[in-house]
């Protein structure tokens, strides 16, 4: 089968058309493009009549030549577009472009949509989450559940989750059981806290899945967990402590360490006793004092209860000389203290937290527990932890 | 009337050492006669031993003041030095400031000493160090706290404070009820 030139490029070699010999263009109608692949002859650039051989003159001739070629190409493209299947519309006939990747038949020959390379690398296949793996392994199938669920207790259709759901109903029924660990805790608050914990746990699991898939930086799940922990600690700090005097269950001390044995209640019993002794009409002033008990002393705010007898005893010892010696001792400690400070200030060690002006110093005491507001509000507004603000 | 506790002694010495430094031991171990500090109703007195012994026979409510009043402990347990201690402090002072006659009166009225009123100053005064203020004739006028160290004071503008007023002799007239 011989191929004729007229078959490949009909326009170029078909001189039977009008004087215009247009070079055949290659069309990519999907991208609305026409390509002229023919090499151009330098003889065609510039008229034989022009004898202008200067650079500017040659440039001008070249410009006109290229403009002509472009005009030809555009007219060819539009001609090709007219050959396409049309659809009527209110703005006129619409040409139906061939669909992508060259699957449909193209009406003009020699056409294929140009395949452009990917601008960005292909996305990695998503790694299955832990649940997906488990599901595959066990062969569990997921069923699509309806939006509403029948709630037996109230006898109505309730949403599965969120506002108005059966699980979210807080305060509609009285809570009969006390909170597990602490009898005096608020059960509604405890319920809210439980739910919050669940949500936080879910968030952490989600980030872990995303980490595995590479959508989020490694280690952000752990950071998230830590942030939630800190928030919980903050709230704990501001929770009001149990007032002394309330009966507290004594913990078992079998095999426990010394520090746990303190929970046995000696300190809190003492405190409770001191509190009760003041709780008479005259603040315990005229109460009969038992042998071995000291008088009831109401502590003024900021004042420490001193044993003045003992102080006087130690202060009067040794006479004048003893006093002078004791004074010298105190003086030495004072001078040394200030000298040490001076030295540190000079050597530049002072600024690490000693002066009040070092705001960044962390003295390991975990910051004071002073909160301006009382109760849970003292913890401050806990910003919602999202993917974007994981520090 | 009782001797001071260790905490009170600490506070007293901290204040005194700002003005006198190590010389506080001269106060404790007085070369001529043994002296001691006594506390009567929040006020600290520097009393000689013989006087203490004499006063012990008197009921404490009747004693208004004895010896030299150095200062008092405020309600928040800080020690405030009074002008009545000036003679003792002047004797052992570490840092002195001489004030020109033009701003003498200003200082005696209770104002701070500006740089324009500064005559002389001892070298190497630390910032916020205790300073005794004297007139150009070496007459003690009071005491104060150095607002800047000596080097900084040289570069201060004329209206800047050199000495922050703590006590002056004019208080004998202004607050005579409160000093003793």
From TrEMBL, chain A:
Q: Where is the composition biased (Basic and acidic residues)?
A: 251-260, 287-312
InterPro entries of this UniProt entry? Ribosom_reg (IPR007023)
Q: Where in the cell is it found?
A: Nucleus
Task: Report one GO cellular component.
Answer: nucleus
- Pfam families recorded for this chain? RRS1 (PF04939)
Biological process GO terms, please? ribosome biogenesis
- Source organism, top-level taxon: Eukaryota
Is Ribonucleoprotein given among the entry's keywords? no
Q: Where is the composition biased (Basic residues)?
A: 370-391
Q: Give me the segments passing through the membrane.
A: none
Q: Where is this region: Disordered?
A: 236-266, 282-391
Q: Which UniProt keywords apply?
A: Nucleus, Ribosome biogenesis
Protein's job: Involved in ribosomal large subunit assembly.
Family affiliation: Belongs to the RRS1 family.
- Please give the name of this protein: Ribosome biogenesis regulatory protein
TrEMBL record, chain B:
The record's listing under InterPro entries reads: NIP7_N, Nip7_N_euk, PUA, PUA-like_sf, PUA_sf, Ribosomal_synth_fac_NIP7, UPF0113_PUA
- Ranges for the PUA domain? 95-170
Is-annotated flag, keyword Thylakoid?
no
Q: What are the annotated GO cellular component locations?
A: nucleolus
Top-level division of the source organism's lineage: Eukaryota
Name its GO BP terms in alphabetical order.
Answer: ribosome assembly
Any Pfam family from its record, for instance, is: pre-PUA_NIP7
The record's function comment reads: Required for proper 27S pre-rRNA processing and 60S ribosome subunit assembly.
- Name of protein: 60S ribosome subunit biogenesis protein NIP7 homolog
